[in-house]
Give the backbone structure.
Amino acid sequence: MKIGVIGTGNMGRILIEAFLESGAVKEDELIITNRTLKKALDIKQTYSGVCVVASAEEVVQRATIVFLCVKPLDIHPLLQRLSSFWTKKHCLISITSPISVEQLEAVVPCQVVRVIPSITNRAFAGSTLITVGKRCSLQCRNYIETLFRHISTPSYIDDEITRIASDIASCGPAFFSYLLQRFIDAAVAKTAITKEQATALTTDMIIGLGELLKHNLYTLPTLQEKVCVKGGITGEGIAVLEKEMKGVFEEVFDKTHEKFKDDIEKVKKQFGC
């Protein structure tokens, strides 16, 4: 089955690389394009069997499953441009959260799925968030789930939790990378440790933490209990975090939801909803 990818920016490229390196897709099964064609050609430099074409129209003509990896406000104009090329045999997969499968189904005749990936998928880890349209066949649904199971843990979600699920699974790596960088910077600023050593120790720590959780050796609460000895040093640090972090993530989610609602309103105007 031929798989098309329209848009080879950050997330489009991550999906392409993950699919190929996990063995989920063969190079000769992929047909890709990008508005700036050089980005697609750069991928072909590494994966020579991938087919690069000059236009989105050609991708839709040659592929059965088509990933749209473009910005939310670029999707409706693109769908209008491609309106005469979609057929019932196609499966359109959008990776953008503000656009619902219902909105997509209203403007294309094909099967529709929304999949929200994460940068962690590049390491064949983390979650992908899946919402299927009403026209999506069981065969298509099973194929897509199998495809993403190679690089992630697929999780089916409803529209009402799309934003918070995306905040956790997709935005979470950026949020916690920022916290870890602040953790490293503070260590360097306050002590004689070098940035290189602090970074190495922090990296090993977070990987180790992930392994403990992966193997179900501890839960998050029990991890704190095991490390945080009563009256000990870790407890003093936790006390500071409890004081200073109060309400931080609530505000983070308030802001992401506020932006999400704004994006939804802009999209609704495009789709005439």
In short: DSSP finds eleven helices and eight strands in the chain.
